[in-house]
Design goal:
Elements: E1 8-11, E2 14-17, H1 28-31, E3 35-43, E4 46-48, H2 50-64, H3 72-86, E5 91-98, E6 116-123, H4 130-135, E7 137-141, H5 163-175, E8 179-181, E9 191-192, E10 195-201, E11 204-207, H6 216-227, E12 231-234, H7 239-242, E13 247-252, E14 256-263, E15 266-267, H8 275-287, E16 294-296, H9 312-343, H10 348-372, H11 377-403, H12 410-423, H13 434-451
Parallel strand pairs: 7-8, 7-14, 11-12
Antiparallel strand pairs: 1-2, 1-6, 3-4, 3-5, 4-16, 5-6, 9-10, 10-11, 10-13, 13-14, 14-15
Helix pairs in contact: 9-10, 9-13, 10-11, 11-12, 12-13
């Protein structure tokens, strides 16, 4: 049994130990920091405001023009599967969209990239240790750098552009402070690495409305303030006004409300956690236990998928590579099976759109496959490309047929779809290993359906 207690990752439909998770060195997510992400906390075996976090993540995907082939419900399903597999009851859960690799040599066109989704979870993260947060932490306002202007990088799209934060953190750590806070070019307070900041003036609680991520914890704080009889204000917060505050505190998915006792050489609340911030911190940990904000982690069977175990003697070297291709295509199928059946509530049109997207994604995957296996490029070019088009076309038709006949068990559905493909004479005598390929494809479809928990009824063995 794989030990996921230190963290897990969901990558391409597989759940793996976080230490084994990786993206290619040429992924634009790495080379260009071209990533949108979000983080949702799990506390005592339930997600807090999961729908809100995923809704914001989907909005970030739209703003950044990321097409990951998954909808809101598919993303939620992947997070449930991963957290369940990890066994973590308190967790820090990230969902990530990366621009991906560009398969066209020399291209600088982001539209050529194969966008992809992955997720990871680790034991719950406190960005400030709880004992320090209880006493009140310290912040250094960066002097050497200002926040990236919001008309350059949209701060409402949670991203990996941390160059300004990193510079500020070096300053803060060199000065002996816990973290950093950045100003904008007009001298207004904005945000820090992974947190929003609030200033308390009597019964008014002020936080910036520009140059900042509109965090879900930030929104929670504003709602809690109203419940507590405080007056929340979202507006520009000049540094000069900030210095006059009675209290200062931070908000983050990694720790909730965090009181601040010191900013630069200025001490707030007599150098301790202030009463308003302390009250809101306690209220936050009450709120994350409220049923209306909690989504219990789905405790269903987790599927840890592996590549098909095949020896070259079974299929030959080219056949073995083609089996690997079908496995990779199976990863793509998994993204779209959930989308198809989720769309099925609105009719076959959703399935048709899904099939079209699947075909485009599979052709891109074929391009990447052919580029990797140069020794077989001539052989791959005709056979694989000719194979890809009818497989995806008839896979789509097979899905449409299934839509009209309800949702059979995965093994039945898989073999129905594969037989539908087989009837079209796709597995021709040219491919002597047709039956083996049928079994590989059927196995991938079974895994696809099971991962999305569409129907898990056992199929009885034939006598």
């Amino acid at each position: 049994m794989t030990n996921l207690a230190n963290g897990a990752a969901w990558m391409g439909g597989q759940i793996i130990p976080i230490a084994e998770a990786a993206i290619p060195v040429t992924d634009w997510g790495l080379t260009h920091s071209d990533i949108a992400y979000d983080v949702v906390p799990v506390w005592q075996d339930a997600f807090f405001r999961l729908d809100d976090y995923v809704t914001r993540f989907v909005a970030s995907l739209t703003a950044g023009r990321y097409n990951i082939g998954m909808d809101h419900d598919g993303i939620c399903a992947s997070l449930h599967q991963m957290v369940h597999a990890s066994g973590l009851r308190d967790s820090y859960v990230a969902m990530v969209a990366a621009r991906g690799r560009n398969p066209v040599p020399g291209s600088r066109d982001p539209r050529d990239c194969a966008n992809h989704f992955y997720a990871w979870c680790v034991p719950y993260v406190h960005i400030v240790k709880p004992e320090a947060a209880t006493k009140g932490t310290s912040i250094w306002i960066a002097k050497s750098v200002r926040r990236i202007p919001e008309d350059s990088v949209n701060p409402r799209v949670k991203n990996y552009h941390w160059g300004d934060f990193t510079s500020g953190l070096f300053e803060a750590k060199d000065k002996g402070f816990e973290t950093t806070l950045l100003l904008d070019h007009a001298g207004n307070v904005t945000e820090g690495p992974g947190f929003n900041v609030f200033a308390v003036f009597g019964d008014r609680v002020v936080t910036s409305d520009h140059g900042v991520l509109h965090g879900i914890t930030r929104a929670t704080v504003l709602e809690m303030c109203a419940e507590a009889g405080l007056t929340p204000e979202t507006r520009p917060l000049p540094l000069e006004e900030f210095w006059q505050a009675d209290e200062v505190f931070m908000s983050s998915s990694g720790g909730g409300v965090i009181p601040v006792a010191q900013v630069d050489d200025r001490h707030f609340s007599n150098g301790a956690a202030g009463p308003v911030a302390s009250g809101l911190r306690k209220r936050y940990f009450d709120w994350i236990m409220r049923d209306e904000y909690r989504t219990q982690v789905a405790r269903k069977k987790a599927h840890l998928l592996a590549r098909p175990a095949m020896r070259s003697g079974q299929l030959g070297e080219f056949g073995l590579q083609l089996s690997e291709l079908l496995f990779d295509c199976g990863q793509i199928f998994r993204l779209f099976f959930g989308g198809f059946f989720l769309a099925s509530a609105t009719g076959p049109t959703g399935g048709q759109a899904t099939g079209h997207s699947l075909h485009e994604r599979l052709l891109l995957r074929l391009h990447q496959f052919k580029s990797r296996h140069l020794r077989h490029r001539i052989q791959c070019r005709d056979i694989l490309h000719d194979l890809a088009l009818p497989i995806t076309q008839h896979l789509k038709r097979g899905l449409e047929e299934l839509w009209h006949h309800g949702r059979p068990a995965p093994h039945i559905a898989a073999h129905k779809i594969v037989e539908h493909i087989h009837r079209q004479h796709i597995f021709t005598p040219t491919l002597m290993f047709g039956n083996d390929l049928k079994q590989i494809l059927a196995g991938q479809i079974v895994a696809s359906l099971e991962v999305h928990n569409l129907h898990l009824a056992p199929v009885p063995d034939k006598a």
